[in-house]
Amino acid sequence: MQRRKSTEGGQDRVPLVLVGLGTAFVLLIVVEWIALDLLRPSQSLTAHYVFTFTLNGVPALGIAYGGYWLDRSPVETDQHRRIARWCFGGLAVFLAINLVMIALWPAETFVNNLGWARGTAIYGAGGGLVIGVIEGRAVHRARVAEREAARAEHVENQRRWLGYMNSLLRHEVLNTVNIIEGNAELLMDEYGDDPSSERLETIRRHSRNMSGIINDVRVLIEATEEADEFEAVNLTEVLTDRLIDLRTTYEEVEVETTIPGTVFVMADALLPRVFSNLLNNAVEHNDSATPRVSVSVEVTDETAVVSIADNGSGVSAAKQETLFEQDTRTSNHGLGLYLVRTLSERYGGRVDLRETGPTGSEFVVELPRVRDTPAGHSGERAMAQPLVVGTVGTGRLVSGGP
């Protein structure tokens, strides 16, 4: 039997002692039977000891099993000695009382007196073990409840701090960053031909990146604060809005889409952040002369799979393993892809890097699909045909055929 270590660092022997005690009681019955059978061959003791084993041997096996159970139970090892004291205390007290009774009112034969003493020892030990286990489990439950209460208090404190951080990011830090970005844009408009305008562009670009990071942090905080209450969300509408935002932000980008007329998935108001991060990454980390993004949706009975491909230089092998991790020190994709993974898994879906190489990368997002159109959703904004958004420098929206 594999024994657990005690809290003092030594071996916890109490379960093994209890197993040994129960086994010793069983062996005592067997040895007693053999010895008496040899001493009194003329008497048949089989029926007597079958009854004895049923009456005393089974409880003795119960003591042995109690030690086996205790070694694998969640009861803390510092309670094992207390359980052992209950067991041996019950044995000693119950046996002492009955030995006095045997001395005052002995049975007719030695065998009967021996069985009396043996039985009281077994039942005393078993009764004490039961009381000790009940007490040990009660202590364990009390400790678990205390730990849960402390954990709940810690979670509540974290929730309050997250709320404070969300408010701080929203009302203080983000406003300051927006002021910096706005002033940089005003100075660029006023001194656009000045050589220092390149530095202003750097300030504006980093301010915009900081705004994106702050927004991602806010979304993560909101995702941890809010309960997971999902509803049917029009995926086609979400993608359409994200593509319009992408075209507004990056006028040089070319976008090809193949999206069904109406697709509903189980999500919430944070779903757009999944695709805005993927689409922005497809352009921001794209070093080709003309960034190109392809968006398509494949629908099955259970899922909707969104594919977002680009014509960038791909993701290096060193970065692929930690691409969706929270540690941003080894990836130039920042917090965005971690947010994409967090939200996708929150909705019961997943995100993967399907392909990557020198000619581009393809990300896929799989989400649980809602097969029936919810009441109140007409799908008026759905794109029944593929859509090409923008040509270099033209700012046109062109709808293609099927």
TrEMBL record:
Catalytic activity line of the entry: ATP + protein L-histidine = ADP + protein N-phospho-L-histidine
Originating species: Salinigranum rubrum
CDD domains, alphabetized: HisKA (cd00082)
Designated name of the protein: histidine kinase
A Pfam family per the record: HisKA_4TM
EC number(s) from the headed UniProt entry: 2.7.13.3
Transmembrane residue ranges: 16-36, 48-71, 83-104, 116-134
Bilayer topology: Multi-pass membrane protein
Keywords: ATP-binding, Cell membrane, Kinase, Membrane, Nucleotide-binding, Phosphoprotein, Transferase, Transmembrane, Transmembrane helix
Localization in the cell: Cell membrane
GO cellular component: plasma membrane
Gene3D superfamilies with a match to the protein in the record: 1.10.287.130, Histidine kinase-like ATPase, C-terminal domain
Enzyme class: transferase
Annotated ranges, domain Histidine kinase: 168-371
GO MF assignments: ATP binding; phosphorelay sensor kinase activity
